[in-house]
Specification:
heterodimer; A: alpha+beta; 4-stranded antiparallel β-sheet; 11 helices; 16% helix; 30% strand; disordered N terminus; B: mainly beta; 6-stranded antiparallel β-sheet; 1 helix
Chain lengths: 623, 384
């Protein structure tokens, strides 16, 4: 049994390492026609009069406008690549769409349905919200870790406000006085300390950050919503327990799915409220909306195919009696959760009708929209979006990736690989004792040619990494069958590398990057001495993906590691994935060499000046 | 006008000399001796006789540890609307709505000694140069950049200035620039600029040009359009002789620079300079109202007017006349003097003065001033 658990844990680790759930709907099929692409509805909006339902179709790169009553498609509007968020201007005449891989915002005239303009935004724009006057457009940039402020008349960038790492979702208070921003990756903390996140509070009239609500222990915050009276705020989030061995999944609580509630109704600082139950979890809380009369809160669970309904009055009553927070008490949810409504696969965005009687749910991996009658808490209609009629193995693999297979439905691959990326955390994965074999999570894009997997190179293929290893070490429950495993591997192998924001589109390097490349490829040190082949950057990090696919001892191993050698990690988009080294002990690329390479074992670098090291890093960012 | 010198590398003796002066200036912070009355200084018994230039008058309200400052040794001051930030030897203090709050290393500040401050007008972020790195304070959150965890050239950050998306930094080992959008650090030192010494003491950045005050290496100019560097040295070389008064930069040991309206105001420990792009004009105690040639900080208001922070008081120059504000060098009593274009000096009776005459930082709040001194922070409240 122990061996089985080890294998499952390893498989889970592989999945965590290789699966990047943040890149929802991304696959390596650039040549597909619209008819061949799934819709992958991610977010929803209702027109002010409630007559039209706007559907952000991520995989199709389009916005579809539906008759909200009949579900009939009224219009299809092409937008940029991998749109991730959208919102109306205050007067409803414009629709702003963030194109996450194009770094642009598409401006759509809602009267004509025509694209009015395309504006440059920050790195990986993920949502956009205009201020009350409509003069400024705030854009949350996931890779930029900031909120870009655009002039809504011209599209020009006015400034960029520092936000949390992986800034992604925005919500404006009903009176327009405050804008709230969440982020999907935790802010930097010291190695092997609990993660920390924030809700960034902005004065949207002045474009200034006025507060940062600290969310202790939280890594992965998704949508945030404000009540109409402005007294209650709710954010959906993940509470990981990454400092203890993941073997504890059998005791529950590898992840707790929670809300942060804040505002005048809470009568205290922000309080964390669990959504799970003692023996059943509701993984990946993503969308959150508050009923117009504030009586109910609705939360979509991306990996559990359901929507949770919370009685707000009961929840607030319970919170007031427990102002210290409830995250440690999974029995708490029985006091305020009034329904779990099954919906489609990977439910994400939510929107309520103005009267609060209809809740629309975007089922991203079903290409459908569930319509829930909130009076009865049941799905009364499912709108099917047009797209491929068959479910391909690739699509099935994606569905597997985004489903909570773990024991008691605790988590999915997408928990650690948010939108198919990473989670910024270091995990103690195996049941080999506390603090042994700590591993940093990595990107899982463009993996072909980077095997073996795991930091010790122990898994030669994705089949092994995602198969029995995941079953034994992560899921601690039934494994996939062979077909599902094949689909999953196919999906992971299909994940393309996102555009590199530090490399010019034409591939040309800046002078600093060019100098850095020369250092990366050098064979002589500055004293004119030959650098041993195995001590050159370009030897271990060779090939187009920056890995020789071999393992080495580069002097960064820890006494708590089971293996003395480490697999050479690939370098693609390495700038995104701090911290670094196998256990995440280097907080930045610089620290790899300024702190953790005292004896030149991790490449010959101690002869470099500070500016030369900066050049090397500038080059690495382009990989 | 422009003088490029060949690279001479590090000179241990010179560096030791500079360091010795630095220790005296930054850590002791107090001048060893004070001079007596200057020649030509006519003491007036009456407050302001006809013909005496009208210069700004202030009531000084001083802050020390007794009323909220974390430390009396204040290196830098920054006004951000109604808030005032004070970089002290024991943390970064912010004054808002009548109370002080202090950020320390426990909050993530890079080091307890905050040497320089800059404000990002577009974001509201405050940048603090410390003895242990560069910190950004944004909405109460502090992110710190050091020479180990980032591309920062050195942890001793004497100067910082924000322009556009770039943060320009002056450190004890060269100058650098952080692009806040891309995260790229660019380092400027003796290898890629005409900087002979790399002890960079101050920076003033504008959309067209960036000026660095280089300790022992004159004034460095970066042209943002061309990406080229230029340099101004003391035409008399590295000594205290001034052969021709306005022939160029007054001295190589440049401590502070302020670039405004196309004019550069330059402070050195041996006099100050003004350069309008064509002509230099220098200020020495012997031929101006400058209370001391030893100037720690300079802040231009426009092309003609500037404030000077010296070791012997706070001085203002309106383009013609001078006024000096300080505790009197002999009695310590509040003192204000006005010097007209002809060199006539008039005492103006006042009841308050800056907390100390060793001035390290100056910033403006409307017509008021905030002044960092070696013995407290002073709020100079304009008296109409």
């Amino acid at each position: 049994m122990t061996r089985l658990f080890r294998a499952a844990g390893a498989a889970a680790l592989l999945c965590a390492v290789l699966w990047q759930p943040g890149m929802a709907g991304v696959s390596a099929q650039p040549a597909l026609t619209p008819e061949e692409r799934y819709a992958s509805p991610l977010e929803l909006l209702l027109s002010p009069d409630g007559a039209r339902l706007y559907v952000l179709c991520q995989s199709a790169d389009e916005v579809r406008v539906l008759n909200a009553a009949t579900g009939r498609v009224l219009q299809t509007i092409p937008v940029g690549h991998l749109p991730r968020g959208f919102s109306f201007s205050p007067d409803g005449r414009r629709l702003y769409v963030t194109n996450s891989w194009d770094d642009t915002v598409t401006v759509i005239d809602t009267y004509s349905g025509h694209v009015e303009a395309t504006w440059a935004a920050g790195f990986e724009p993920s949502s956009a919200v205009a201020n009350r006057t409509g003069q400024l457009l705030y854009v949350a940039d996931r890779i930029g870790n900031d909120i870009t402020v655009l002039d809504a008349a011209t599209g020009e960038t006015r400034t960029a406000l520092v936000a949390g790492r992986g800034a992604s979702y925005l919500a404006l208070s009903a009176d327009g006085s405050r804008l709230y921003a969440t982020h999907v990756y935790p802010n930097a903390t010291a190695h092997r300390t609990p993660p920390k996140s924030e809700i960034t509070v902005i004065d949207p009239a002045k474009a200034r950050v006025v507060d940062r609500m600290t969310l202790p222990d939280i890594a992965g915050v998704f949508h945030v919503a404000l009540s109409g009276d402005g007294r209650l705020g709710v954010a959906a989030q993940l509470h990981p327990k990454n400092l203890v061995p993941l073997a504890h999944v059998e005791h529950g609580w590898a992840f707790v799915d929670t809300l942060t509630v804040f505002g005048a109704d809470v009568d205290s600082k922000p309080v964390e409220v669990p959504l799970d139950e003692l023996d059943r979890y509701y993984a990946m809380p993503f969308g959150v909306v508050i009923a117009p009369d504030k009586s109910r809160i609705y939360v979509s669970h991306g990996a559990s195919e359901c929507v949770t309904v919370i009685d707000t009055r009961k929840m607030l009553s319970y919170v007031r009696r427990h102002p210290e927070g409830l995250a440690e008490n999974l029995a708490a949810s029985a006091n305020y959760v009034v329904a779990r409504i099954p919906v489609g696969k990977n439910p994400r965005g939510l929107v309520l009708s103005r009267d609060g009687t209809r809740l629309y749910v975007a089922n991203r991996l079903d290409d459908s929209i569930s319509v829930i009658d909130t009076r009865w808490n049941r799905v009364v209609r499912t709108i099917r979006l047009s797209g491929p009629k068959t479910i391909t193995p690739l699509r099935r693999g994606e569905q597997t990736f985004y489903h909570a297979y773990a024991f008691q439905g605790q988590f999915s691959c997408s928990n650690c690989h948010i939108d198919s990326t990473f989670d910024g955390l270091q995990w103690d994965l195996e049941p080999d004792g506390f603090g042994v074999d700590i591993v940093d999570n990595r990107l899982i894009e463009d993996l072909r040619g980077t095997e073996p997997f795991k930091w010790n190179g122990g898994n030669p293929t994705l089949v092994k990494e995602c198969g029995i290893r995941t079953e034994m070490y992560f899921w601690r429950s039934q494994n996939y069958d062979d077909l599902r495993l094949t689909d999953l591997v196919l999906y992971i192998r299909s994940l393309p590398s996102r555009p590199n924001r530090w490399r010019a589109a034409n591939g040309e390097l800046t002078p600093a990057q060019e100098r850095g490349r020369a250092i990366f490829n050098r064979t002589l040190d500055k004293l004119g001495q030959a650098i041993p082949e195995a001590n050159r950057c370009s030897y271990c990090h060779s090939g187009p993906k920056g890995t020789s696919q071999k393992s080495f001892d580069v002097g960064t191993g820890k006494s708590t590691d089971n293996s003395g050698v480490l697999d050479t990690p690939q370098l693609m988009n390495v700038a995104l994935t701090a911290p670094y080294l196998h256990d995440g002990s280097a907080q930045s690329l610089e620290e790899i060499w300024t702190v953790y390479n005292p004896h030149d074992q991790h490449g010959r670098t101690n002869d470099l000046t500070k500016d030369e090291l900066n050049d090397l890093i500038e080059y690495l960012r382009t990989r | 006008m422009t003088h490029h010198r060949e690279h001479r590398g590090h000179r241990i003796g010179r560096t030791a000399f500079l360091f010795g002066i630095f220790v005296v200036v930054m850590l002791a912070g107090i001048p060893a001796a004070q001079s007596q009355q200057r020649p030509g200084h006519k003491v007036q018994a009456i407050a302001q006789e006809p013909g005496v230039p009208v210069m700004p008058r202030f009531r000084f309200e001083n802050f020390t540890t007794t009323n909220g400052l974390p430390d009396n040794h204040v290196f830098s001051v920054l006004v951000d609307g109604d808030r005032v930030w004070a970089g002290t030897e024991n943390g970064l203090a912010v004054y808002e709505k009548g109370t002080w709050k202090t950020y320390t290393t426990a909050d993530g500040l890079a080091h307890r000694a905050v040497l320089s401050l800059a404000f990002d007008q577009k974001t509201g972020d405050v940048w603090a140069g410390t003895m242990g790195g560069l910190s950004r304070i944004s909405g109460g959150k502090i992110d710190t950049y050091t020479q180990l965890n980032s591309g920062l050239s050195n942890d001793v950050v004497y100067g910082v200035s924000v322009e556009g998306e770039n943060v320009w930094v002056a450190t004890a080992a060269g100058a650098c620039r952080l692009n806040t959008r891309t995260g790229e650090w660019s380092l400027y030192n003796e290898r890629n600029t005409p900087m002979n010494e790399i002890w960079v003491y101050g920076v003033s950045a504008a959309p067209d040009k960036v000026y660095y005050a280089v300790w022992g290496s004159g004034l460095l100019e970066y042209n943002q359009k061309t990406g080229l560097w230029d340099k101004w040295d003391d035409p008399d070389g590295e000594n205290e002789m001034v052969l021709l008064k306005d022939q160029g930069l007054i001295h190589e040991i440049v401590t502070s620079v302020s670039y405004i309206d196309g004019v550069v105001w330059v402070a050195t420990y041996f006099g100050d300079s003004h350069y309008d792009g064509r002509y230099w004009h220098n200020f020495l105690t012997k031929d101006s109202g400058l209370p001391s040639n030893f100037t720690n900080t300079i802040r231009g208001i426009d092309r003609n007017r500037a404030w000077f922070g010296t070791d012997r008081g706070l001085a203002y120059y309106d383009g013609t006349n001078w006024s000096v504000y300080r505790p009197a060098l002999d009695t310590g009593k509040p003192e204000m003097t006005v010097r007209d274009a002809k060199g006539h000096v008039t005492d103006i009776p006042v009841k308050t003065a800056p907390a100390h005459n060793y001035i390290l930082g100056i910033d403006f709040q409307g017509r008021d001033l905030w002044v960092a001194t070696a013995r407290g922070l002073s709020h100079a409240i304009y008296q109409p």
